[in-house]
Design brief:
Elements (H helix, E strand, L loop, with lengths): L7 H17 L2 H13 L2 E4 L1 H8 L5 E6 L3 H10 L3 E4 L5 E4 L4 E6 L4 H4 L10 H8 L8 E3 L6 E2 L1 H9 L1 E2 L6 H6 L3 H15 L2 E2 L1 H18 L2 H9 L3 H4 L4 H31 L1
Helix pairs in contact: 9-10, 10-13
Length: 269
């Protein structure tokens, strides 16, 4: 059962304790982080914060930093860290028993493709809204721990509903990890007994249909991706994927039919 974040100040204290342990037991990463903070702002996003809320262990840390890409690369080169860049300009830092995935704000896919507009006065809200699912939409400012965003995640927990935060089709079409999004949605739904919002259902159905048109054998393709994600395959099987795909398509048609009837009634009125 997912836990809602209610006592914000208590949660901030728990974050500080856990984050301090993480960085101070990884000296090279701590030195790197101190240089980042001296030149800009860092934000912890997603799973690390969710693990604190739910009392889970964390082996990964997702971060966004508000500095120039060139400066980030220069700091990395001068560090003692083992790292590599991924195809989306993010950085994966390998530590002794954990990993850090890190992006500059400007190179994060949502900001880079302009599906989320940057606003310096509301940057933490923009980062939160740039998360694809509400389940992942947790953000805290490392420089100033009193700046935190938990609303979207709390709504996911309270309503027991997985939602895609942005409603416009452009945002969803530009997301580069379609197969992973589908599998992640099915994994979260089964593990935490979450339902799908209408927005999420429609996205899943359209994505599943498009993948089938593009690749012929939908489930062979999704099975290939499922093998890459042991965490997902420990909870869902390819049979689950098939069943949940059919359900999403069926539910999407019901949603579309209802909207069509509603529009017709408005027109007749």
């Amino acid at each position: 059962m997912l836990q809602k974040i209610e006592e914000i100040n208590e949660f901030k204290d728990r974050f500080k304790l856990k984050f301090d342990v993480f960085r101070l037991t990884n000296y090279a990463f701590n030195d790197f982080l101190m240089e980042i903070l001296a030149n800009g702002t860092a934000y912890v996003v997603g799973g690390f914060l969710r693990d604190i809320a739910n009392g889970s262990l964390s082996r990964d840390l997702d971060m966004m930093v508000d500095i120039d890409q060139e400066l980030l690369e220069d700091i990395l080169k001068r560090s003692q860290l083992k790292y590599k860049f991924n195809r989306m300009s993010g950085v994966k830092i390998s530590l002794l028993d954990s990993e850090v995935d890190l992006w500059t704000i400007d190179n994060n896919w949502a900001f880079r493709t302009d599906v989320v507009n940057r606003n310096e006065n509301y940057i933490i809200e923009r980062i939160a809204d740039g998360c694809f699912f509400n389940y992942d939409s947790l953000v805290i400012n490392v420089n100033k721990g009193n700046f935190i965003h938990v609303r979207n995640y709390n709504e996911c927990v309270t309503e027991k509903t997985l939602d895609i935060l942005r409603k416009n089709d452009l945002y969803k079409k530009k997301n580069p990890t379609v197969e992973a999004n589908i599998l992640r949605a099915f994994f979260l739904a089964k593990k935490f007994e979450l339902s799908f919002s209408e927005n999420c259902t429609t996205y899943l159905a359209r994505s599943i249909i498009n993948l089938k048109l593009q690749h012929g054998s939908l489930f062979r393709r999704l099975e290939t991706f499922l093998e890459k994600y042991p965490k997902y395959s420990s909870v869902i099987s390819i049979d689950d994927v098939a069943t949940m795909s059919e359900s999403a398509i069926k539910d999407s048609r019901i949603i579309e039919d209802r909207k069509s009837i509603d529009n017709q009634q408005k027109f007749n009125f």
